[in-house]
Amino acid sequence: MLLIDHIGRKRSLISGIVVQQISMLYIAITLTVETSLDNDQSPSAKRASLGAIVFIYFVGIGWAMGWNSIQYLLNAEIFPLQVRATGSSLLMCFHYANRYGLSKAVPSMLLQGSLKPEGTFWFFSLLTFFGLLWTWFLLPETAGRTLEETNGLFN
Known about the structure:
Layout: H1 2-7, H2 9-33, H3 43-65, H4 67-77, H5 84-110, H6 116-138, H7 147-153
Helix pairs in contact: 2-3, 2-4, 2-6, 3-4
């Protein structure tokens, strides 16, 4: 929380998104290039596969740095006081419905008859890129502002 207050919500979110973006791109490229998942891989393919496993953890680190922590802060800051409880409740309902939907969709996306693993990571990499554009161009910085100043940003 201190880091987010120090560097700002927007910069923290962008940093987390970039970590996720790079990680998902690496995984997508590795899965696209290295189609064989048997034990007869070359040493470089094994290292690339190990790197993809490591980058799965970096996706989680990027999520924790960005969307996972910032969503709760922004949710509490962007609504005017008279609609804050209702707005925050609706956003949290949307958030958890989205998480539920993803938990049901991703296993199907990973199947060979669907997007397959590489297509799934290309899809989420693209989605993350659009999230980066949205954050960069449309999300105002709210760190260090009063609630009244924050309300003025959205008018």
